[in-house]
Design a protein that fits this description.
Oligomer: single chain
Number of strands: 12
Number of domains: 1
Distance between the termini: 19 Å
Mean pLDDT: 87
Strand order of the largest sheet: 2-3-4-5-6-7-8-9-10
Low-confidence stretches: 3-32
Largest sheet: 9 strands, mixed, barrel
Length: 280
């Protein structure tokens, strides 16, 4: 069993897990001598606004594992994120460009987390994580391709994303936790467009808000001869954000990994009590 099983829900008690995994290295694009990533919201130094450190995440497949498939249009297999972050802003430690009233909500949620009484959210109730949050998970993802569809099978809480190729979004749209996803290829990049998201989830694990007008665009490109999957995420929300923003993530090809059973409802140690996540 993976050491992180259900730990992503224990926001107030992550110290052991973080110590075990280590922190995320600086982004590869960071210039030499660049200032370290902020450890508090707004780089304020206020301990009540302390951010949860990221996790190192997955490494490359071990020696002897089958090599990645160099076909840029074949994403099938198991992938595992390298460098998981609790806050999904344009850079490590930088919050999304939230409007003032929603930044105040994020501050409230971070302070509650640091008091040891984090606000309950969808995931602590074993509901789907929402977007883009579900893609920022320290658990493996298995991608399956069939004619007209690409399916993401997440180990975390058994979230499933069905992405339909070369077709429009249905009308009218039903709002759901993971939204409606369609995709097309632009050269060697798969472009995924997700709308129809409800407002019952957070953008990230720190508690950034989004509305039911959130729009997420993902661009997946295989690099390193098929051993790495690069993801560029763009988040738009005219209600909660001052402007759209983007960030980059990478997933490692891991043919040696079999996603495990993850039944959130069984022994959920973080089931909320009166709206507060209580680690048991």
């Amino acid at each position: 069993m993976r050491t992180l099983k259900r730990a992503s829900f224990a926001i107030a008690g992550l110290a052991v897990t973080v110590a075990a995994w280590g922190q995320v290295p600086p982004p590869a694009s960071a210039p030499s001598g660049a200032a370290p990533a902020p450890t508090t919201l707004h780089n304020s130094g206020d301990p009540t606004l302390a951010l949860t450190p990221g996790l190192r995440g997955a490494t490359a497949a071990p020696k002897g594992a089958p090599p990645g498939n160099p076909d840029p249009h074949n994403l099938e297999g198991v992938w595992w994120m390298s460098g998981y972050q609790y806050m999904l802003g344009p850079d490590v430690g930088v919050p999304p460009p939230l409007k003032p009233e929603y930044m105040a909500i994020l501050e409230r949620r971070i302070r509650a987390k640091n008091r040891g009484t984090p606000e309950a959210d969808a995931s602590t109730q074993c509901l789907p994580h929402g977007m883009p949050r579900v893609m920022e998970s320290p658990y493996p993802i298995e991608i399956v391709q069939t004619p007209g569809r690409i399916t993401f099978l997440h180990e975390v809480a058994h979230n499933v994303r069905r992405i339909y190729l070369d077709r429009p979004h249905p009308a009218p749209l039903t709002q759901t936790f993971l939204g409606d996803s369609i995709a097309h290829w632009e050269g060697d990049t798969l472009v995924v467009d997700t709308v129809g998201l409800n407002d019952k989830t957070f953008i990230d694990d720190e508690g950034s808000s989004h509305s039911d007008q959130e729009h997420v665009i993902e661009r997946y490109t295989k690099v390193d001869n098929g051993s790495t999957l690069q993801l560029i995420v763009t988040v738009e929300d005219p209600v909660t954000l001052e402007h759209p923003y983007s960030y980059r993530r990478v997933f490692r090809w891991r043919p040696d990994v079999r996603p495990q059973e993850y039944v959130c409802e069984e022994n959920n140690r973080n089931a909320p009590v009166e709206g507060v996540t209580v680690a048991k």
